Amino acid sequence: MIQMTTAYTTEIDEPEKGIDEILEQLNLKSLKKHSAGVLACHFDFIDEGFVAELSKRLPFDFIGMTTIANATAQGHSMYGLSMAVLTSDEVSFSTVLTEPLGSADYGEKIAGAWASARGQLPGDPSLLMTIIPYLKYLSGSIMLESLDDVCGGIPIWGGAATSVDVGDTQCCVVRNGVASPAGLAMLLLQGSVNPEFVFTAIPRQKIRESVGVITESDGCLLKKINNQPAWKYLENIGINLVKQSSTSMPFMVYYEGNAEPVSLGVYTINEDGSLLCGGPMPEGARITTGEITVEGIISTGEESVRRILQSNRHGGAFLFPCVTRYVMLAPNQGDEMKLVAKMTGGSGENKVPHLMSYCGGEICPVRDENGKLHNRMHNYSFSACVF
User: What is residue 240's predicted lDDT score, i.e. its pLDDT?
Assistant: First the structure.
């Protein structure tokens, strides 16, 4: 059994007061035999030494990220620090931070870090939680593929660090008191761990009914749909992507055996009409497009929390929605965090401790028609891991 305790502060200007707030809310005397934490914060908490000092005061390891906004039941803000602690007598934890990942050596460094963290545990891990860096030269999908290979296909859940400028400046991955702009952090859980995974992205009524088939691709590179260049196919159905401009038009990909599509973004529009996307585009998969709206963001956030409450798992939840959702809610960017706090802040079965952090890409396993989990990258989604 795993229990979660959360804490929150905005006291960056008075770090001692802020650290005392975190320690008081966590109630360290109540920790069980094994514990580990996950942290999300504004970059200033790292830059000013707050996270490093907090690490010295905590009796457990933690991983974490910078983010554009974060929340627990105690509060939400762009300028806050949130921490969630998992504690258990039966489940063991280990953490690790890779060396900075390069475009050529990322696989070797991920494998070495995994082996190091695995060696700290009494048995094979049953779940991997990860925070991946936001790197222009290395996609989240490639990092996930490498993680999936080394961990043997166990469930992987997590997300990519981001920052207040929704870019790679002031963007870090954290383990204890060490922050890295290009490192990947892992939290391995060993024991009887069987979380519920929840994801929603685009309401069904905002998904185009006409569906194409991917007829040529190379990994995340989408070359042809229905034997037409991908860019030309979109033009023919009335969607015009603009080169040299980011797009928030989601592809909805129906992976083999999955009834529910995965939402993926377009990262690059190439001269030949191919599109570099946020996740694998396997040939033969059905594909369509969706539309992101403010109403859709709120409704899918609400649907995710409803699924969490219906799961009858109330040990705690990690919530990693896409940073695009936060940006597109402007000027009411806190509305999704407020909704989560309202829905999970009741009593009994409606009270769920949570840590919420906006990410630059979400990692969440998806079940196929036979119930088997497949580790997937997502964009624009609201992703949750519920204990």
Answer: 83
Q: How far is CA 121 from the centre of its chain?
A: 24
Edge-to-edge, what's the strand order for the sheet holding 61-66?
3-9, 81-88, 34-41, 61-66, 173-175, 178-180
Distance CA 127, CA 310 (A): 22
Q: Is the distance from CB of 353 to CB of 6 less than 8 angstroms?
A: yes
Q: Can you say how many angstroms the Cα of residue 278 is from the centroid of all Cα atoms in its chain?
A: 13
User: What's the pTM value of the predicted model, to 2 decimals?
Assistant: 0.94
Could you tell me if 148 and 374 are in contact, meaning their C-beta atoms sit under 8 angstroms apart?
A: no
Q: What residues of the chain score a pLDDT lower than 50?
A: none
Show Cβ contacts of residue 303 under 8 Å, excluding neighbours closer than 6 positions: 200
Q: How would you label 232-267 residue by residue, b for 16+ Cβ within 10 Å and e otherwise?
A: ebbeeeeeeeeeeeeeeebbbbbbeebeebbbbbbb
What backbone torsions phi and psi does residue 341 show, to the nearest 5 degrees? Answer: -60, -40
| pLDDT tens sequence across 212-266 | 999 999 999 999 999 999 999 999 999 888 765 556 789 999 999 887 899 999 9
Residues 104 and 37 sit within 8 Å (Cβ to Cβ): no
Question: 125 near 190, Cβ under 8 Å?
Answer: yes
CA distance 52 to 177: 4
